[in-house]
Amino acid sequence: INVAIVEPGSIFPADLSTAEFKARLRELVTIQSHLKIELEHSSSGGKLEIALKNDLEKEVDVDLVFRASQNWQTAPHQLAFTLKPGQDATGSVVFSASTEALLPLPIYDYSVLYGGEQLYRRTEMVYPIEPSKMQKITDWMLLGTFGLDVSEELVASDIVPSNFIVDPLPIYDKSANKTYQGKHGNIQWQAHHVESGSVNLDAVFEKPEWASAYGVTHIKSPDARKVFAEIRWGSNLGRLFVNGVELTTAARPGEHLFYGRVYIELPLEAGWNTITIHSGDYTGGWSYQMAVDNTTNALQFSANPD
């Protein structure tokens, strides 16, 4: 989000604080997403509803543009509003896609001009499930750290250290007694619970550098199904595996990242499914977080199921 910082009186009234003005500027636009995934039908879609009200003292211009997408159709592609003081307006965008090809999700940009000056700009994604309603995974078995075959940041951000790709996944040991050769000696799986869902690997492994680690958890499904999931990569490198098979669209670096987050569909089988995170970091700020759509309460979660 970008909000211009201006002095009171230069663009808006001097008796209005900068913080209050920015808050009122954000309140100009209300956007509600109504996206329904129809798994039993060939297509899914929804509507984005926009409501605007100019309670400020100058004319406001609001522009909303959907980015081009191979999967999603939007109509219209762009909305533009000009509101004089005291005016309000509404608009909507209809979008649809094949249920078999929902990802990546649609993204749009919108900006606000006040008195001809751009003061607010934001990029947002249309979510199939509100992020706050997704179930955060709080229990993991962690294994680390392992070394990366680099000791300085790679010139190109999309280059991945070779051993991060070719090293085989460690076989999860349910007893957690198996020993592995790590970066600084022998290591074993360790249980980790975090109520917030954000796994702080810096804290767990005492701020290592140029290192990687694994996180394993399990999801039980009553049948074979695809479920939406979100990963927030707080790391330079990231890979996701479901039952040993990598979902390449979840990787970091990767073309599907949205502000460090990525949305994927997990192909779950009936029964317990093994979810493996392989995460790597260079010089700190190392974490990850995963959340899953469990709005029907059909799924069960455990780091180490019986």
CATH fold title of the largest domain: Jelly Rolls
Strand content: over 45%
Helix content: under 10%
Structural class: mainly beta
Mean pLDDT: 89
What is the end-to-end distance? 45 Å
Order of helices and strands: EHEEEEEEEEEEHEEEEHEEEEEEEE
Just give the CATH class of the largest domain.
Mainly Beta
CATH level-two architecture of the largest domain: Sandwich
Tally of DSSP helical segments: 3
Report the strand count.
Answer: 23
What is the radius of gyration?
Answer: 23 Å
Shape call: globular
What's the number of domains?
Answer: 2
Largest beta sheet, briefly? 7 strands, antiparallel
Low-confidence segments: 1-10
How would you describe what is shown here?
With 306 residues, the chain is mostly beta strands. Residues 1-10 have low confidence and may be disordered. The protein has two domains: 2-128, Immunoglobulin-like (Sandwich); 133-302, Jelly Rolls (Sandwich). The chain has three helices and 23 strands. β18 and β19 form a beta hairpin.
Key phrases:
306 residues, mainly beta, Immunoglobulin-like, Jelly Rolls, seven-stranded antiparallel beta sheet, five-stranded antiparallel beta sheet, disordered N terminus
Secondary structure layout:
Elements: E1 2-3, H1 18-26, E2 29-36, E3 43-53, E4 60-66, E5 73-75, E6 78-83, E7 88-98, E8 107-114, E9 117-125, E10 135-136, E11 139-147, H2 162-166, E12 180-182, E13 185-187, E14 190-193, E15 198-200, H3 201-204, E16 211-221, E17 225-234, E18 237-242, E19 245-246, E20 261-268, E21 271-281, E22 287-292, E23 300-302
Antiparallel strand pairs: 1-9, 2-3, 3-7, 4-6, 4-8, 5-7, 8-9, 10-22, 11-14, 11-16, 12-13, 15-22, 16-21, 16-23, 17-20, 17-22, 18-19, 18-21
